[in-house]
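Q: Hi! First time doing this. I have a protein sequence and I read that you can turn it into a structure. Is that right? Here it is:
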Amino acid sequence: MEQFDIIVIGAGIAGSAAAFFLAEQGHKVALIEKGKPASGPTGRSSALTHAFYLMPELSQLAIRGVEVLRRLPEWTGEGKVHHEIGMLWVCGPDAEAEWTKAAERIRGEGSEIDILDMPGLKKLAPSLVAGGLTMALWEPRYGYADAYGAANALTKGARQRGAVVFLDTAVKAIAVRNGKVAGVETEQHGLL
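A: Yes, that's right. Below is the predicted 3D structure, encoded as structure tokens:
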């Protein structure tokens, strides 16, 4: 039975990133995936990127997540996975105060976000029919990511940093001893 410090189940964007950063820190990591990296929800994600959230925790998580996506080519040698085409948000008078406050907070968190009045919005999007709109937020450094490519780059990077990657390996059970996780049982490899 092979021994690991940490076992990560699932090689979607979250699991592959966890394995990557844990291996980077020197932990002996196993990454177990029942299919291929990004073969679950990650591979079907629209992968839109933005920092505009009304909840600070989500903005901060998004900002850090996109920083990771931008740096993946440098860290893994793989191709670009984040594409900056901009993200535009529009609202009417009922949301204006809350959105303005959120945009100012997001700027303070280190992300570029512009508050546009109607002339600014028309300049950015001249063909937009703006009936009922009163303001917009523009995030020029966001857009979309290749979630499939990112999960595969992170999985490859985890392997390069010493993680053992088990693909096409289904987890049958999580082994618990004395109230603590002791390992996982897989159909292909027994107990890990």
